[in-house]
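Pipeline run #58 for the internal structure catalog. This entry was flagged by the ingest filter as a single-chain record with no existing model, so it goes straight to prediction. Upstream metadata was stripped on purpose; only the residue string is passed forward. Reviewer on rotation: M.T. Logging verbosity set to normal.
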Amino acid sequence: MATTALTPPPVSDEQTQALLEFPDNRLLIDLCGEFDRNLARIEQALEVQILRRGNELVVVGEQGAQERAVATLRTLYGRLETGRSVEAGDVDAAIRFGDTADETEAGDQMEMFRGGKIEIKTRKKSVEPRTAMQADYVRNLFEHELVFGLGPAGTGKTYLAVAVAVSMFVEGHVDRILLSRPAVEAGERLGFLPGDMKDKVDPYMQPLYDALNDFLPARQLGKLIEEKRIEIAPLAFMRGRTLSNAFVVLDEAQNATSMQMKMFLTRLGEGSRMAITGDMTQVDLPRGSMSGLIEAERILRNVKGIGFTRFTVKDVVRHKMVARVIEAYENAKRSDG
């Protein structure tokens, strides 16, 4: 692929033009997306104009934005050349890599995104990291028996942990999966919900069910839950158990008390792995209660064999507005502090 200046000259003194030539027209069709929706996504995010003619794309815009759009298109085309697909989330990820201030980090991320082979294979689909920090997290999950994934909402902490759990279960490395959350509500009380304990707890555990449904066929998932080879339960139900040959995920761990966290960590049995995820800025415990996650991070950060991955707002892979909201709150907190 080559980039060359076009004639006539740019539309205005502030704008530049670039021509991208793509040798494989079939891949170019996939790059553009249905009804050119991928191009429209890049245009909207970077405030550029992308014109298509034959096997070429013309990118027009202010120099910095135009260069980022060109880099994004190259990255996505390189991804297609490796046989991988390009979806809306992949477009957003490629755009986000261009926002990285550190050029070395940005280059590493783009290389991982284009041709990296970090894949989590489940029964329904393959999952891959979309940022360098997610890639580090997935490596930690496969390589360490105990892993902490810390950071804001939308960074894939729980989703990737459940994906790795399913992958290791399917491949026979563990015999069962246990997914848990502390039964602490964000401003609500379970006691006011109708039904028995299962009816009260299940809605709270729904994000874990949603993740599993992404990776396992519904009929198989139902059977595995019935056979208790997959369990989803509140953290309090872990007391007194030794969890052997299992992949255990503790979600929303910032809402575990110090005593609960120590109890949970000491459940680790032979042949098991644990992933503990949470956002230390979103503690819902009563005022004055110490978060077990914050305490565990302080006590265990230098313990050999424990993996820590710390996500930032740059790793948010949900709607781009989520990253903006998180960043706005962080800025407000710094201003108030």
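catalog note: The chain is about 45% helix and 15% strand.
catalog note: Residues 63-81 form the longest helix (19 residues).
status: ready for reviewer M.T.
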